[in-house]
Batch of 2 targets.
Target 1
Amino acid sequence: MTEFSIHDWLAWSPSLQTTEEWLEWSQSESLRTDHRPDGAEPDLEGVDSRQRRRLSRLTEMLLYVADGVCARAGITPSELPSVFASRHGEVETTVDLLEAIGRDGLISPMGFSNSVHNTASGYFGINADNHHGSHSVASGIDTFPQGLLDALALRRSAGTDSVLYVFGDILLPEPLDPWESDPPEEFAIGMVLGDASGENALAIDMDKSSTADNTARPGLSFMNQALKGNTSFTITTRRYDWQFEIDRFPGLTS
Amino acid sequence: MAETNPVVSDMSLLTSLGDTPDEVWNKLYEDPSPQLTSRGGLLNRDDPVPTGVVEREFPPIQSPLDRYDCRNNRFARYLADEMETTINQRIEQWGPSRVGVVVGTSTSGIRSAERAMRRQVEGGDFAEDFEYAQMEMGGLGEFLSEYIGAYGPTVTISTSCSSSAKVFNTGIRYLEMDLVDAVVVGGVDTVSELTLNGFDALQLIASERSNPFSKNRSGINIGEGGALFFLEQGEEGVTIEGVGESSDSYQMNAPDPEGDGARRSMEQALEDAGKTPGDIDYINLHGTGTRQNDAMENKAVNRVFGGETPASSTKPFVGHTLGAAGAVEAAFCTMALERARPNSLALLPHLWDGERDPEMAPMELVESAEERDCASPPSVLSNSFAFGGNNCSVVMGITR
């Protein structure tokens, strides 16, 4: 198993914002986090309003948890490398551009530069004056755990104590909505991760999936298990069995 | 860094210059001949622009992986097929869970979505002949993993023009962390209306072949293609000696004009490799031919290396292959290292109009393809600097 630690986490979804709300959710049967799917957006106080107007909802969510978890962990956001993971990425902006192209219309330069997968990573670095390396990644249904491995790799490469790992996804817009997963993973989580010597130890392992049935949304499933206080569990996707061992998860009142 | 640097046990390459390393080498070095095709139909300009297209057509991806069928993944399949013997032997030897896939792309199969959208706009069915697996960024890595049967860590990095340089960083760390015994790294990108028109909207596309570091430079040519590398511990071969990364933290679509981010990226790569600037025998520049990149890269290279290290941009040959550029240019560097005599390096030529930009610091641009003797086994450095100042530099060497 690959061992690491987690200093802190911060998660946001349209219906769950505080730690208490997330803890309560973990006790419920359903994994849904989009009870208020009316375009609810996180409050990005620290970001310039002109910039905020240009940002997609996904980027707002990712920036919110990125900045927020650094604050919670007492880490200056300029100090650490980062991995931003999203299965769908800037799909809303991309669909708008595809529609424009489909009509032989013009596409805006700003729209194009904000449609790249590393949009949130770029804005985070600019706002935080962060000069460390930053990755933006995707791995289909397995994006959350695969991105986490990349974060551990980047931490090692950078030689820093910590790495910022941010995962988030929004609902697929039309006309892609037929491909939406069930339940959809509409949330974002920021985590500050460290090496195995850190206080809140975790371990992750992976194997080819034991089943072809696509059963889980790994990001939400992980949150659900961890917040229940489960210390050892497996999340199975169509492609992989992901095993987690958790010594202690921050934010749980013992 | 690990005790020994990982070696490239096998490599495949696909660009407008050719489908195999031999074909590409012939037009890159033996008989330098850039291959750019004129392409019209951009939304916002009447004149056609040079693009580095791959002419070869590939057959559809069959069931059970047909949901991934798009040109981008057909390129990937071809590249994997070219390494089939090595891949199959190693998966057999180590087991599928011990071989990983780390690849980069900026386009994935967006072309499929473009066609689907056009259908919809014209009153047809979006979903006919389209699957989301073709379009999503993670589709490239996932398809390759399924196709070759490798079930180690699998991730697609998408950071625009540095995507398939960063794959080397993640790949070598997965080896160091003992997550894998071997890893397939690389990148694939394919020309699309979105990227052509997007870069054109940013006024970054040149009307003629790109002219890096010239005072007359006027932008990029979009290219396509890909390269895959099989990395593992080994006794001899081209080695990945170090990787460095940095961020400019400046603007979303312009680099820091002072080149600080680029400088940090190169310095980090050297430090990771345990090398000094004097150990580098050749620099494969990012050299896109935009006014901004070349000005800042010139500053940064001069600050780190001075003005005498042989350097060239190979983008005039094949275009800027965007998400595949890191891998394609690492492939060019691999050939430069292994096709030369021992303790010698094949210097890749810099194609331009020869008109120095008077505002630039001195730079030793390689005038013609030639072998140069080195004091010891050569090392090279390859730069990839992306949108939003997302930088990566890779140092490669050779053990014989």
Note: The mean pLDDT of chain B is 97.
Target 2
Amino acid sequence: MRLNIEQSPNNTEVEIIIRCGQIDDRLEALIQQIRLYAFSVQGKLEGRSYAIPLHKICYFESVDDKTYLYTSNSVYDCEYRLYELENKLGGTSLCRVSKAVLLNTTKVDSVRPMLGGRLEALLENGEKVLINRHYVAGFKAKFGLEGGLG
Amino acid sequence: MKRAGYYLLTACVSFTVLVLFYSCMSLAGLLLMPDALVMLQFFAVVCAISLLLFFVDRFFSGRLTFPWMLAQIACAIVPVFGLGGLVFGWFPFSLQAVAMVGGIVLLVYFAVAGINTLLSRLDARDINAAIRKKKNKKDGKKETGDATEHD
């Protein structure tokens, strides 16, 4: 693998081009990481706007038609709807885990089983997020595991 | 479609548990094995239960609560007594029959819940193994990086 970096004041934005014969698992993981670090989402806190990079986001939650963005220690207002974020960020480590939550799977420390086929994810910052049984298969897929029905 | 598959699977597991129960009780001489028509009626009732569960789960789309569990049990009991007892005439509405049928319904409900919990445990085990593998890879890369810097 060759890595070429072209640094110039004429370059107004960062562009990453990957030339390959075929995308294998390692390359797919690299592309996911690049997407995670390349994208950022606008969040508002106390009247100010911030560009929050994806790798700092723990999860998005929709409450009363409003979307909130949670990092390790802050909560921001987000202008996007959950389905819009899901469409935009579908190829990243973000995954829908319930009707109202989009979770960043890289922030998951461990999971434990709950009654009713649900799982509870423990995040790196100690928060707990419930994974609805209908979304377990999709959640498992983010870890390269095959899911079952539901 | 995936959600429909989940509820169909629940119906099939419930039906299997019910047939196993009746088979064991029939072999023990405690109950008569139902005929083919009644078996099909059993399947119709478990499908009705799954359909009700679908609506209850949508209503209780939040956290697991005791009312949710009670609603689920009600979803099992209503079709059994309504369809099975009143429409198909499986049993008389005597105290003994109602108690026995209620017991069978609870048995099937907890058997299916137990299977779901077991599958959940297996999923959690696999996911935790995948998370540990990723973390070990990251830690391995960090150690290699440090060694390079010191070189």
Note: The helical segments of chain A are 25-38, 82-88, 136-141.
